[in-house]
């Protein structure tokens, strides 16, 4: 590696066989690997017999370390940036270091590979020509419902990450905001031993998750179809408008006005903005 470079390296989201030969070579040849979790990344490197030193780089120290790491790059060293799993910077730390390196004129080069976002889209069977990645929804119920109300009228396919602790609540809130019948696909533990990919309506997925404790374990990617020019779209727009009006008006008044504005049924809107 004659030119000092910050390599942004994608690592497996589950199956270790997905670490590409090029990624292995880069991880061997750089001067250090900047890792979100050095213990987890250390296990990955050990599996492939890679002894490159590891540096902890996570959301709590990235701002402070970026300048020091850029100085190493300017001095001629090459570094690799990895996350716990998948492609760095996609709902993971790293953008501050990448931004600082680019601002300093350092070469930043991607080593592409696994991504839970792309993996889920590839098997969902939902429109993927245009999509919006929303990452993790807010943990607080009121903030989550407010965000979903803003997204209810989105025509693009939506992709969310979710944890086992909130998958039940998030699916319930999605049903309330988007309607029970919205088509969706839920990918769980993708590329891992207990991988499952469930499809159906949001209500179907919620029922299956509630009925099977195993479907509430692991890491999730939820792909939700956008709205079309039909009753589903009208209802979604009604819920979006209702959520805005409900910030200033009583629920019944907000529902009545939202129904008049959008043509959505008032009964379907009333109570849609209820809090925790």
From TrEMBL:
SUPFAM superfamilies: Tetrapyrrole methylase
Subcellular location: Cytoplasm
Species per Swiss-Prot/TrEMBL record: Pseudoxanthomonas daejeonensis
Matches recorded under Pfam families: RsmI_C, TP_methylase
Enzyme nomenclature, EC number: 2.1.1.198
Major localization class: cytoplasm
EC supergroup of this enzyme: transferase
Name of the protein in question: Ribosomal RNA small subunit methyltransferase I
Protein encoded by which gene: rsmI
Tetrapyrrole methylase domain residues: 5-205
Function: Catalyzes the 2'-O-methylation of the ribose of cytidine 1402 (C1402) in 16S rRNA.
């Amino acid at each position: 590696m004659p030119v000092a470079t910050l390599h942004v390296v994608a690592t497996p989201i589950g199956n270790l066989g997905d670490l590409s030969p090029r990624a292995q070579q880069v991880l061997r040849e750089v001067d250090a690997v900047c890792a979100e979790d050095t213990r987890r990344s250390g296990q990955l490197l050990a599996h492939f017999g890679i002894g490159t030193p590891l540096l902890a780089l996570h959301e709590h120290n990235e701002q402070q370390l970026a300048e020091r790491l850029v100085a190493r790059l300017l001095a001629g060293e090459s570094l690799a940036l990895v996350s716990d799993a998948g492609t760095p910077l996609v709902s993971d730390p790293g953008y501050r270091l990448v931004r600082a390196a680019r601002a300093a004129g350092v070469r930043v080069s991607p080593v592409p590979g696994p991504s839970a976002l792309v993996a889920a889209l590839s098997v969902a069977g939902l429109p993927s020509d245009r999509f919006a990645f929303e990452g993790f929804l807010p943990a607080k119920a009121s903030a989550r419902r407010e965000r979903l109300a803003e997204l209810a009228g989105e025509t693009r396919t939506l992709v969310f990450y979710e944890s086992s602790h909130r998958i039940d609540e998030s699916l319930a809130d999605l049903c309330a905001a988007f309607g029970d019948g919205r088509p969706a696909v839920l990918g769980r533990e993708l590329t891992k031993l207990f991988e499952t990919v469930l499809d159906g309506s949001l209500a179907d997925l919620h029922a299956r998750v509630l009925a099977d404790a195993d479907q509430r374990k692991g890491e999730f990617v939820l792909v939700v179809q956008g709205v079309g020019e039909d009753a589903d779209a009208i209802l979604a727009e009604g819920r979006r408008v209702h959520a805005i009006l409900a910030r200033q008006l009583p629920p019944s008044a907000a529902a009545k006005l939202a129904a008049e504005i959008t043509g959505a049924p008032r009964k379907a809107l009333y109570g849609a903005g209820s809090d925790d």
